[in-house]
C-alpha cells in the first residue's frame, strides 16, 4: 500500500498542475481528435484530460519505483535449484 501511494499521490499532484497549465493555454472547445472537433462539454474534456495526465504521470512514477529496486530484489528466486531431487543432465 505504501508503494502504491508513492506512485499515485505525486502523479495526482503533477497531473493537476499539468492540466492547469495545459488548459490555461488551450481552450477545450478548440481541441481536435483524429481531425474532428471534440464535441464533449468543457467539464468532460477537463476530466478526460486530467485522467490522461494522471495515467502518464503514474506510469512515470511506476517506472521510477521500478528502477529504484536492487538487482537482488528483481532477481529474487531466479536461478534457484528445483527441489525435485533430479539433476538437470539426466
Describe the structure.
The chain has 90 residues and is mainly alpha-helical. It has a domain at 2-29 and 36-69. Helix content is 60%, strand content 4%. The protein has three helices and two strands, in the order H-E-E-H-H. It has a two-stranded antiparallel sheet. A hairpin with a 2-residue loop joins strand 1 (32-33) and strand 2. Helix 1 (2-25) crosses helix 2. The termini are far apart.
Identify the notable features of this structure and list them briefly:
90 residues, 4% strand, elongated, mainly alpha
Uncertain segments:
none
Shape: elongated
Q: Measured on Cα atoms, how large is the radius of gyration?
A: 22 Å
Q: What is the average per-residue confidence, as pLDDT, rounded to a whole number?
A: 85
Largest sheet: 2 strands, antiparallel
Number of helices: 3
Binned, the helix content reads 55-70%
How many beta-strand runs?
2
Strand order of the largest sheet: 1-2
Order of helices and strands: HEEHH
| C-alpha termini separation | 45 Å
Structural class: mainly alpha
Q: What portion of the residues fall into strands of 2 or more residues?
A: under 5%
